[in-house]
Specification:
heterodimer; A: 4 strands; B: about 220 residues; six-stranded mixed sheet; four-stranded antiparallel sheet; 10 strands
Chain lengths: ~325, ~220
C-alpha cells in the first residue's frame, strides 16, 4: 500500500513539476535566468547519471567528469576539425564516453570501496591534467586550441533563443531521467542494487559482480557523455573544466544530498543546489568547501538524503494510518 | 556411484598458519553429510573452499568430474553449488522478493519467486526490506537464496545457529525436503551432534585442519 501511494505521489509530483517547468518561460523572459535553468537541467541529468554507478551500484566513482569531458571534446573536435554534422559528432562523443566507462569499469571491477575512489580519482585527474597542459591543436588564423581555453564546437545554427534552449534541455532531462528510471527498474538495475547492498551475498547468489560493475560504469558514462554532448552544444566550447575534479565531486555531492540510488533524488538536489549557487553567486572555491561539508554531514546524519527523508516520512504517515 | 564433489589433498594457510592440511572428502549425489569440529578446526575455511569463496593453496576440487578448483563462487552457484553463511549478510535496501529475484536465473518470473517464497515461509514478508527481517527469517531467506539455483550440492555453514526451537524445526524440515524431494546433496556444518545425527547419513569430524574421523549414522 505504501509503495502504491508512493508511486502515485511521485507521479503526481513529477507531472506537476513538468507542467510548471513547461509554463515557466511564458512568465520568465529574463535570458540569464533561462540560461541558469537550462544549465541546471543538464547538470541534473549529469548527477542522475553518476547515481547509476555511485548510488545504484555503490561504486564511489570520482572520475565522472572524465566521461562528460570525453564527449564534449569529441563533439568539439569532430564538428570543428573534421566538419562532422553535430548530431554525428554528438553520437561519437556518447560512444567514446561509453567506451571510456567500459575501460574504467574493467579497471575498477576487481576493487572495492575506497580503492575504487582512489583509482577513479587518479584517472580523472590524469585526464584533466592531460587536456589542461596540452595546447595540442592549431586552428585557422593562428589560434591555439586545447589547454585551458579548450576547443569551440561548430553548430549549423547561428543563434538559439534562450526559451528554445530551455525547452530542448528540459526535453533532454525528461528523456535521460526516463532512461535512468528504466535502468533502475530493469533486471540490470536490480543486479546493481544487489551488489551495492552486499557484494558477497550477490556473488553467492550467482551474480557476476565484475561484469555488472563494468556495465554500471558503461551505462553511467554513456549517459554522462550524452549530457556532455548536449552541454557543449549549449555553451559552444569544450574546455578543460569539463574534466575537472570539481564536476565529479559536484555529481557525487548532489547525489548524496538527494539520496543515493534513487535517481530522482540526485536529479532534484542537483537542480535545487545549482539554482542556489547561481542565485547567491557562490564562488567555485566556496562550492568545493560546501561539497566536502555537505558530504560529511549527509553521510553522517542523513545517509538516505532527501529521498530517504521522504521515504521515512511516508512510512511514518502510513504507520499512523494503520488501524490499531 | 560417481561422487558429486571430490576434494583431494586440500591445504590452506593464513599468514603462515596452516588451517587445513591435506583434507580429502567426497560426497555422492543426494547424500546428506554432516561436518563437526571444534572452533578453529577449519570448518568455515573448508566451506569457503568448497563454495569457491577462496581458493586452496594446494589440492583439487572436482564437481561432477570437472576440475573447479579455481572456479569463483558465482560460477559455482550457476553450476549448482550453493551455500549459506554463518552470519547472513542481507541486502540492506532490497525487499525479500527482490533478493530472491537476484538469485533466480533470468528471466525470474513472478510465479517462480512466489513459489520459492512460499516454500521457505516468507510470502508474508515479500515486501519487507531484508535488513528488517528477524534472525529466523534471515536464515530462511539465506536458505531460499541457496535453493534458487536448484542446487545439486548445498554447503550450509552453521545454518541452525541462534534460532528458536520452532525456527530450527521448520528449517530442518525444509532441508530434509530439499534433500529427499529435490535430491540435493548437502554438507551441513554444525556444533550440534543430535541435529547432525537427525539430518545426515554420514558425519565427518574435523580436527586441527584434518579429517580426524568419519562415521555413518
Amino acid at each position: 500500500m505504501v509503495r502504491n501511494n508512493a508511486f502515485r505521489e511521485t507521479t503526481y509530483a513529477l507531472a506537476a513539476s513538468a507542467g510548471a517547468l513547461l509554463l515557466l518561460p511564458l512568465a520568465v523572459r529574463d535570458p540569464f535566468l533561462l540560461d541558469v535553468l537550462t544549465t541546471g537541467f543538464l547538470l541534473s541529468a549529469f548527477a542522475g547519471s553518476w547515481d547509476i554507478v555511485g548510488g545504484m551500484a555503490g561504486q564511489l566513482s570520482l572520475c565522472h567528469a572524465l566521461f562528460f569531458g570525453a564527449a564534449t571534446y569529441a563533439c568539439a573536435c569532430l564538428s570543428t576539425l573534421f566538419h562532422w554534422p553535430i548530431l554525428l559528432a554528438g553520437a561519437a562523443g556518447v560512444l567514446l564516453a561509453g567506451l571510456a566507462g567500459a575501460a574504467v569499469g574493467a579497471l575498477a571491477a576487481p576493487l572495492r570501496g575506497p580503492f575504487v575512489a582512489v583509482l577513479t580519482l587518479a584517472l580523472g585527474e590524469a585526464a584533466h591534467e592531460l587536456v589542461l597542459g596540452n595546447v595540442f591543436l592549431a586552428g585557422p588564423g593562428g589560434y591555439a586550441w586545447g589547454g585551458e581555453g579548450g576547443i569551440p564546437v561548430t553548430v549549423p545554427w547561428t543563434a538559439v533563443s534562450p526559451a528554445a534552449a530551455y525547452y530542448a534541455a528540459l526535453a533532454f532531462l525528461a528523456a535521460s531521467v526516463g532512461t535512468m528510471l528504466l535502468v533502475r527498474r530493469s533486471r540490470q538495475g536490480l543486479m546493481l542494487r544487489a551488489l551495492e547492498g552486499s557484494e558477497l551475498t550477490a556473488r553467492a547468489s550467482g551474480v557476476d559482480v565484475a561484469m555488472h560493475k563494468r556495465r554500471a560504469f558503461t551505462i553511467a558514462a554513456a549517459i554522462a557523455g550524452a549530457v556532455g554532448a548536449a552541454y557543449v552544444v549549449h555553451v559552444g566550447r569544450a574546455t578543460a573544466n569539463d574534466f575537472s575534479l570539481e564536476l565529479s565531486f559536484q555529481a557525487a555531492t548532489f547525489a548524496a544530498v538527494g539520496g543515493r540510488g534513487s535517481v530522482l533524488g540526485p536529479v532534484f538536489a542537483a537542480f535545487l543546489l545549482h539554482l542556489l549557487f547561481q542565485g547567491f553567486d557562490v564562488p567555485p572555491g566556496t562550492r568545493i568547501l560546501f561539497y566536502a561539508l555537505a558530504l560529511m554531514l549527509i553521510l553522517r546524519f542523513f545517509p538516505g538524503g532527501i529521498a530517504g527523508g521522504v521515504r521515512r516520512l511516508r512510512e511514518r504517515r502510513a504507520g499512523r494510518a494503520e488501524p490499531r | 556411484m560417481n561422487p558429486l564433489i571430490e576434494v583431494h589433498g586440500i591445504s590452506k594457510s593464513f599468514d603462515g598458519t596452516a588451517v587445513l592440511s591435506g583434507v580429502s572428502l567426497s560426497i555422492a549425489p543426494g547424500e546428506a553429510v554432516g561436518l563437526f569440529g571444534a572452533n578453529g578446526s577449519g570448518k568455515t575455511t573448508l566451506v569457503n573452499i568448497l563454495s569457491g569463496l577462496i581458493a586452496p593453496d594446494a589440492g583439487t576440487v572436482a564437481f561432477e568430474g570437472r576440475d573447479i578448483t579455481r572456479l569463483p563462487i558465482d560460477a559455482r552457484y550457476r553450476l549448482g553449488i550453493s551455500r549459506t553463511f554463518q552470519i547472513p549478510r542481507p541486502y540492506p535496501v532490497l525487499t525479500v522478493r527482490d533478493a530472491v529475484r537476484v538469485a533466480l536465473p533470468a528471466p525470474a518470473d513472478e510465479p517462480a519467486v512466489e513459489t520459492l517464497l512460499a516454500r521457505v515461509g516468507l510470502s508474508g514478508q515479500r515486501n519487507f526490506p531484508c535488513a528488517r527481517l528477524s534472525q529466523g527469517c534471515l536464515r530462511r531467506l539465506d536458505f531460499a537464496l541457496a535453493l534458487a539455483c536448484r542446487p545439486k550440492l548445498m554447503v550450509l555453514d552453521e545454518v541452525f545457529s541462534a534460532l528458536s526451537m520452532t525456527d530450527e524445526e521448520e528449517l530442518a524440515a525444509l532441508l530434509r525436503a530439499a534433500n529427499l524431494e529435490d535430491r540435493a546433496a548437502f554438507l551441513l556444518v554444525s556444533h550440534n551432534p543430535p541435529l547432525l545425527k537427525s539430518l545426515c547419513s554420514r558425519i565427518l569430524r574435523l580436527e586441527g585442519g584434518r579429517i580426524a574421523g568419519e562415521r555413518a549414522v
